[in-house]
Amino acid sequence: MYPFCKDARRLELINVLMIMLWVYNDKCEKSTGEEAANLLHEWEVRLGTGDRGCNESSTAGRELHLATLNTEYWLKPPAKYENLGEYLAYRYRNIGAVFVWSCVKFSMDLKVDISDPRIAEWLEWAGLHLGMIPYLHLFTSAVTEELIDR
């Protein structure tokens, strides 16, 4: 996923964060609302202390840290969506698009501001695409199966 990583240590840090998020997501899915809230609080407290004394030449590490704190893989979908925009906003948060972009920036030690409106709009489109890929695959599989059955 990160073929142009600046150095191996950055890739190790990203891998650890991804494993932590995967374990955390699994734990939250099996928890009640109160247990998940307690886990989230502990997650924020423990990761929140890592922001002290960051002496980095770019903002990539700080942005990755904030994206990790704000990743919402474990979000439960609302019972009902009022419109497609609400659903896409949920999927964008649920797939962790900001975390993915922050990992890319950190891995390459980029000095760009991913919150710049010119870049953020493109990243939002790419994130929405990421959120739709599983559904596009399901649709393609269903159509293929239908054609085979004919």
Can you walk through the features of this model?
- The chain is 69% helix and 0% strand.
- The protein has one domain (8-149).
- With 150 residues, the chain is mainly alpha-helical.
- InterPro entries: Isoprenoid_synthase_dom_sf.
How are the SSEs ordered, and which strands pair?
Elements: H1 8-29, H2 33-48, H3 60-69, H4 84-94, H5 97-108, H6 117-149
InterPro entries: Isoprenoid_synthase_dom_sf
> Overall 3D geometry?
globular
Tally of helical runs: 6
Strand tally is 0
| SS-derived structural category | mainly alpha
Number of domains: 1
**How far apart, in Å, are the first and last alpha carbons?**
39 Å
Mean pLDDT equals: 77
Question: Approximately how much helix is present in the residues?
Answer: 55-70%
